[in-house]
Amino acid sequence: MISKYAVVFEKSRTGYGAYVPDLPGCVAAAATLEKAEKLIRETIQLHLDGMREDGDEIPTPTTVAEMIEITAA
Fold first, then answer.
1. Per-domain residue ranges for the chain?
2. Which secondary-structure segment (H or E) carries 27?
């Protein structure tokens, strides 16, 4: 079964952080956006594997993200 989880990427002074709103505690950080994306993919899989091993219910993805374009004054 394939699930799609929303991931938020945030720029910091030292690189990028990433987190998954539907999976509390599922976070990654790296020097580049590309590395952060790779790490969060791996982290999601490890997080879900750990939940399964612990007998926890896997949350259904519910977060929706959208880029909203506005004109700045």
1. 8-53
2. strand 27-30
